[in-house]
Each structure stands twice: as C-alpha cells, then as structure tokens.
Specification:
262 residues; 12 helices
Length: 262
C-alpha cells in the first residue's frame, strides 16, 4: 500500500539549540493540531545533520508516526574513511530512513550510479529505507529530454534491484532546476513525471509493486503550494527543504498531506 510520506531535509542548517527548538516546535504543532486525519497512513520523517540524529531520536521517542533519517551514508561498510558515516552507524542510533542520491550530492560530490547503489545496498542491509532521489537539470527539461533522463537514472540504479528489495525504496522526484531556486514544477508537471515513473515501475516490476511504492515530490515545495502538489493522484508526499526549517510551515504541510484523498 502506498503510504503518504513527508520528509524534512534540513541540509546543513541549524545549531544545536536551533535544532532542539525546531523539533520541539514541530511536536507542539502536531500535538495542538486538529487538522490531521488518517494519521495511521502518514509517515513524518525528520532528516537533520549527522550531529543531531541522536538528539532528534530522543526528542521524538514515543511519538506516533515520526521517524529520523540521515541525509546521506557512505558507500563502504567501515574502514579508514575519515569524516564519513556508515549505514550501520546510522541504523545503530535508531534512524529508519536515509536520503540517497540527492542532486546536491550528485553535483557537489560527483556521486555516480555505482556509488549510489552501493549506498542503497548498505542501507537495506542495515534496515534503513532509502529515499532515493532522481530528477533532471534545467537544460534537460528545456530540451525535452527530462523523461529520457529520469528513465536512465532509474535503469542505472534501483531498477537493477530484485523486486522484493525495490519495494523497500521510496522514490523522490526532484527537478533539479526547482531546488533552492524558488522555481517549482507546476502540479501538472509534477503529476506528469510521477505518473511516468509509476508506469516505468509497472513495466519493470508489475502492478503489485506499483501499489506499494511511494513517490515524493521535492523542489521548492512549501506551505503555499503544497495543497495543489499533494492533490495530484501520483504524488504521495514531499521531500521538503527550506520549508522544513520552519515548524509552523512544516506542520501546515503535514496537515495538508494528511487530508488528501488518495
């Protein structure tokens, strides 16, 4: 069954006091909200920087449907890799998810398909659910190659997996041209690509798998445009950047997602 999922990717933001205040603000907002429905079908994921994973895990302890994610993991199991963090380390502190393949990792750190699949394999081995990011650059969309690019990104990575393993993946479509730019795909553009991705999954793995894979939208999604994006039939939630750093906005988006009829 496709679950509704909203994940807040804090990126490299917040000091320790700010991180504490943000989580407490989100939890207070959720507790006071009267606009969240179908809570048992909704997963809320917080992805703070590495130093705050354990803090956030402790703050959400006992809270229904709220989980912790790491923003990345390393592509090796362990060893002399100063400054890196392994999937096993992340899992050991109680995180349940890990973001893999974010466009910023692909761009700034030159992460390729082979490296990303090593990360996915290690995440699954350590009982972490990968939120796997794909998406096109602005020139690729302008040249109308966006479908080809996304198809190839899937073919080179998670479509190489066995079906049972693939079902543990969450796909996040993030048009790179809409990340941190203030630009956003229109609801129709988001739906078109999400539907395309779902069709590809069906061809590769069959209808049963289609109905078990959540596809999130990421790319300047915020409290103002969330309703129109989340209303699209193939958009199962969001991977939220800047808006997840404001407790009120993030709670508002959670409320919006919870009330979509899908």
């Amino acid at each position: 069954m496709r679950r509704k999922i909203i994940a807040g990717n804090w990126k490299m933001n917040n000091t320790l006091p700010e991180a504490t205040s943000l989580v407490e603000g989100i939890l207070n907002g959720l507790e006071q909200s009267t606009n969240i429905t179908n809570r048992d079908l909704l997963d809320i994921v917080l992805a703070p920087p590495y130093p705050y994973l354990n803090l956030c895990k402790d703050l959400i302890k006992g809270k229904q449907g709220i989980y912790i994610a790491a923003q990345n993991c390393y592509s090796e199991e362990k060893g002399a890799y100063t400054g890196e963090v392994s999937a096993a380390m992340i899992s050991s502190i109680g995180a349940k998810y890990v973001i893999i393949g974010h466009s910023e990792r692909r761009n700034y750190f030159r992460e390729n398909s082979q490296m990303l699949m090593k990360k996915v394999d290690l995440a699954l081995k350590n009982n972490l659910r990968p939120i796997f990011c794909i998406g096109e650059l602005i020139h690729e969309r302008q040249s109308e190659r966006h479908f080809k690019v996304v198809r190839q990104q899937l073919a080179d990575t998670v479509f190489l997996m066995k079906e049972n393993d693939f079902r543990r993946i969450i796909i996040a479509y993030e048009p790179v041209w809409a990340i941190g730019t203030g630009l956003t795909a229109t609801p129709e553009q988001a739906q078109e690509m999400h539907s395309f991705i779902r069709q590809l999954i069906g061809v590769k793995f069959g209808r049963k798998t289609i109905n078990n894979i959540s596809i999130l939208y990421g790319g300047s999604c915020n409290a103002a445009n969330a309703a129109s994006l989340f209303a699209m039939p193939d958009v199962d939630g969001g991977l939220i950047g800047g808006a997840s750093l404001k407790a009120g906005d993030f709670v508002s988006m959670i409320e919006t997602l919870s009330n979509t009829n899908k």
